[in-house]
Amino acid sequence: MPAGVGSSVLQRVTKPKTHKGKKVLLDREPKVIENTKQIFFVKGAKTTPELQECLKDIYTLKKPDAKILRNRNHITPFEDATPLEGFGKKFNANHFMMISNNKKRPNNLVIGRLFEHTLMDMVEFGVENYMSLNSFKNEKIATGIKPMLVFQGELFENNSEFGRIKNLLVDMFHREDVEQIRLQGLEHVLSFTAHDNCILFRSYKTLLKKSGTRIPRIELQEIGPRMDLRIRRIKLATDDLFKQACKKPKVLKEKKKKNITEDTFGSTLARVHLGVQKLDTIQTRKMKGLKKTTAEKKRKAAEDLDNSQKKAKVSNVTITEA
């Protein structure tokens, strides 16, 4: 579609001519369990070496679920996000990150996400006090490691905008779902601290030290990158659109089980309803050591004889009265 044409114009739908093209189109169709979310990185018309290094560092943390564009693009996302939506559809990506630099907004970093190839949320930051990965001379993490995200600060809980930014960051650094976790695999920590309209971004590697017990002692070693993200502009989706994006398919919703609850410690508690039990007919003694003694048998026989005699007397009285 030529540049400048609105998205309302119908695009030509072409059938795939190769098996690879058909496979790509099938992979882009909606699924009950979606693929791992992808992110693409864009350079603006003007950048700085510091911003480019920052972009490469975050790209390193996101590999292999990332795509970086080498050419520069004259894009102003807050005025027209159509080019970013086109890139998202081309690469089948849900998130984007763009860097730019100008006199009005130096060291500018824009983070956003798409929903159905349409802009959903977008936040503009100013990068301050940046230190790259290469500035920290220590061992780095392996590619594709799932990070542990730590959010500190009351603003993430009490402020609605910071809460949406937290949701955006969790969504961006989220990788594939796993059912089991290995302790040695938890080696990367991303820390976000909210303080006075700024988010402090830190990256650590966990070190498992000997503690004399089965549980190791945990130490954090900063590996970079490090930066302070000053919030400049925010463009958030409406509540209805956000609710629609968070909607789960009925297939994935867990069916509520009756009379089953879970306490704060994770233990499953169940309530079982039983009918009236006939205690007279229940067989309770099957062990030899629990058998009735001879004295108990004689006492039981005497009680049964007395009960039968009493019933006979009552029946005789009723007959004479009649």
UniProtKB/TrEMBL annotation:
Coiled-coil ranges per UniProt: none
Highest taxon of source = Eukaryota
Annotated signal sequence is none
The family database entries (InterPro entries) matched by this protein are listed as: Brix, Rpf2
- TM region positions: none
- The yes or no answer to whether the keyword Metal-binding is present is no
| PANTHER family xref list | BRIX DOMAIN CONTAINING PROTEIN (PTHR12728), RIBOSOME PRODUCTION FACTOR 2 HOMOLOG (PTHR12728:SF0)
Per its record, how is this protein called by name? Ribosome production factor 2 homolog
Organism, as annotated: Trichogramma kaykai
